# Entry
Amino acid sequence: QKEVEQNSGPLSVPEGAIASLNCTYSDRGSQSFFWYRQYSGKSPELIMFIYSNGDKEDGRFTAQLNKASQYVSLLIRDSQPSDSATYLCAVIGSSNTGKLIFGQGTTLQVKP
Amino acid sequence: EAGVAQSPRYKIIEKRQSVAFWCNPISGHATLYWYQQILGQGPKLLIQFQNNGVVDDSQLPKDRFSAERLKGVDSTLKIQPAKLEDSAVYLCASSLDPASSSYEQYFGPGTRLTVT
# Structure
């Protein structure tokens, strides 16, 4: 079992729709969760982080965390073609040293 | 605020040669990370420094990889000798001291290494 799992996609949504990206993790003691966006040929860019159960909203982005189900998701409202990228879920495990454990990423395609 | 700086951006070497990468973190960031990202995968941590001390190097192939952060600021990652499977993007990231409860990491542009 991988420590952090994501569906590699691609996930294709029409412009203006809601894109839903999902991630599960295996370490029940994990406390910190991050979403990075990575455009092709570029480095990961931090877009959201969440530490507590529930929802956290930032503009068109909403991160959702359910520690009981070991599940974290990212919703992108009013998706734009510029949102087309790979989205990486990352978790800091129970060791809490700051080490990020990444999933393999989900490729999102937003079609005009 | 200046971001994480890395050089070189690209490097092509033959197998068995050596190569070194340099990273300068965001000013004031005590923690520095080196990640390896193979095409189609998420980044994998190679080594983590807190100031000039090593926190985690459990996934660093120590027979060929080495890293240092002598003055607690910039860092160098070296590969000697390189293998074909070392072809990847090497990413440097930095964050504030985890004791501040701020764990957000910011990445540099990366160095794309091709081993032929």
